[in-house]
Write a structure and sequence with these properties.
10 strands; Rossmann fold; about 280 residues
């Protein structure tokens, strides 16, 4: 095991040991014990199919947990509705690169390629998954290489400063608000006809945090137009003190976000990051 992966494993053990104290402290997001609690909540939500089309979420769902508590169950619900094999799958952003996500059907043992800017501490190549590093806006994949493309909370980083968390390459410190447009065009090129592209992004009142941005209505329209789907579905979820719930676009048009790295946008609602997300399924 690589030394970085070993250190990460020790951190996860320490986090698990601290989780009872995290709960006693009132569940402050991103403090010691948060990851363990969040992981357990996500696994439960996926396995119990909590996020289903048109159905309200349970009361107090995901209080003090960031948007992954909605995004992962939403994604799995869409994948289960695949009527069979997912085919050739691309994870554009490496958001699925966790054992507790990859261990769950229908992702388990699928033909998966994980693409991100630079190598990460976690790596599951020994399970047969492929890893590719590069820019989504200009990949080396052939036309129609994939049947399913997933990009979970990733497009909000494309074209901005990715040197804070994701790479040391200073060329990836950008200020291109519309970098996601080229990524969507590339997704369309490498997706097989009739294939599915599943996207989530933070949504609400536009704000740029330098390393990520909140998408507004105009940006969502640009995203969809750049892909030019044969059809699409668009859903919204909102976070309040009471947890996550489904929402209309009008309800989340002024939603904000909390940046856990700078503290910007902090309120007393214990939001983990975004206070609203847009979840989009596009058919090629």
């Amino acid at each position: 095991m690589h030394v970085d992966a070993l250190l990460l494993r020790f951190k996860e053990i320490a986090d698990a040991l601290a989780s009872p104290f995290y709960i006693l402290r009132g569940r402050p997001p991103w403090s010691l014990g948060y990851y363990t609690t969040k992981k357990a909540a996500i696994k439960d939500a996926i396995d119990n199919m909590v996020v289903r089309p048109g159905r309200p979420l349970p009361d107090s769902f995901g209080v003090a947990i960031d948007e992954r508590i909605v995004e992962y169950p939403w994604l799995f619900d869409r994948l289960r509705d695949s009527n069979g094999s997912l085919g050739r799958v691309l994870d554009a952003g490496s958001t699925l690169n966790y054992d507790f996500i990859l261990d769950r059907d229908p992702l388990r043992n699928c033909d998966l390629t994980i693409m991100t800017l630079a190598p990460e501490k976690r790596c599951y190549w020994y399970r047969g998954y492929s890893y590719v590093f590069g820019d989504f806006r200009q990949t080396r994949f052939k036309d129609a290489s994939f049947d399913t493309i997933m990009s979970i909370s990733t497009l909000e980083h494309v074209g901005l400063d990715n040197t804070l968390l994701y790479t040391d390459d200073q060329q990836k410190s950008e200020k291109n608000k519309h970098g996601f447009v080229d990524a969507m065009r590339e997704f369309k090129r490498i997706l097989a006809p009739g294939g599915r592209c599943l996207i989530t992004v933070p949504y609400g009142k536009y704000e740029n945090f330098n390393w990520f941005q909140i998408f507004d209505k105009e940006m969502i329209q640009l995203l969809i137009e750049a892909f030019s789907p044969s059809s699409f579905d668009l859903e919204f979820f909102e976070y309040t003190k009471s947890g996550w719930q489904r929402a209309s676009e009008g309800q989340v048009v002024n939603a904000t976000a909390f940046d856990p790295h700078s503290g910007r946008g902090r309120l007393d609602d214990r939001a983990g990051c975004a206070r609203a997300v847009a979840c989009i399924q596009l058919i090629g």
